[in-house]
Amino acid sequence: MNAIFNLQRETNKLWPKRKPTTQSLLRSPFFILAISLLTLFLLLFLSISTFQTSKSLFSTQTLNTQKPQCGKFHASAREGEKFLWYAPHSGFSNQLSELKNAAVMARILNRTLVVPPILDHHAVVLGSCPKFRVTAPNEIRASVWNHAVELMKSGRYVSMTDIIDISPLASASLRAIDFRVFAASFCGVDVDSTCANYLKPGSSSSFDILRECGNVQSGIEGNIGGCLYAVKEDCRTTVWTYENGDDGELDSFQPDEQLKKKKRISYVRKRRDVHKTLGPGSEAGSAIVLAFGSLFSAPYKGSESYIDIQKVKNSEFLPFVPEILNAGKKFASGRIKDPFLCAQLRLLDGQFKNHWKATFQGLRQKLGSLNQGDDQPVNIFVMTDLPRGDWSGTYLGELASIEKRFKLHFLREEDRLVAETARQLGKRGSRGNLHCPHQKSLDVLLYIEESVCSCASLGFVGTAGSTIAESIELMRKSDVCSILNRTAR
Where are the transmembrane segments (predicted)? Predict the structure, then answer.
């Protein structure tokens, strides 16, 4: 038995000799190092292969989404034609101001102007140029593009030229194209498929293609040589001029030291000649499409916030289309009939909340100075977005309660005149724009109200700094109501 045990012990000693040798090899530092190096080599090889493959796929995708788009667009464009598009923001009056500035830029640079749709109020926000806090050009372009696509998809797309008569610009040799037509052509999409009612359940959406294409057009993916140049300069760094002889000079308005320390900014505003910088002979000048960010500008501390081209800036008055002007005239002469005063008291106006006390005070003074010479009440047309039921306890409620002295007039969305005007405008794809069947009713109330105020023979009281007030004052200065009277004869 002991022998057996001893034999087993011997056997156990003899056979495991090879195993320990293998285990010792496996546990050897040299073997572990070799295996580690081999593993790292394999991982590195796989990583490089994957990277090259993904890079190849990405490059192919870039070629497919960028170059063909420019190629198709270039082929469809008239020989030598180049385009300018921009990113408007905020309310309608701001958007109209930017349209005029864009027209100036397009004429100087000899480019076809891409006319945008009317954006929802404050759907796109710029920020504050004086505070050097604005949305970057690439971001605001992307926001405008995506919002425009959403307007198409929801059946609410309305071109600026459906509301504004740009014939004065056309007579000044300005070429224009609607944004919807431009976007569809550039992105290789059938323009008819951009109508909301065109979509079928389960079908591939043209709107998805347009959104992806917007990344290219907004400049997020960078400039495309000979195709797209996305302007990076905004009001924080640049004031555009034209033939002023001050190209490259510092602008008179710069961030003060307190603002630099508080906001930690280091911007320097320079005056740049737009023709020299972006015109023929420049990198931008060779691109088919020149994309600006916001083109809003306003006077500030002896300078302009972004565009200082006084020779031609805002030189043309752009009236509403005849349907809107005629509706305003019809309300003034048919509903009010007698001489009247117009008061702009819109709560959604960005400036009203800052100047409402001064606005009401100015209205009180104006009403106090009016003397009808008889016992007839003073007619007042009120532009307001405050529902009649909420007038109690307000100055409007006070005026309405004194019926012997004042007679108030106002328009509402549900009024037949407003609805009929919207129907007329939505009935057709006017002025060369695409007309989509089943387009949702246009919101034209504000435009008709402004037209009514242009005919207010007793005067106009507006909110200081309001672009709506500025628009009405310009209409009154241009004597739009008298022009309508002469046309009617």
Answer: 25-48
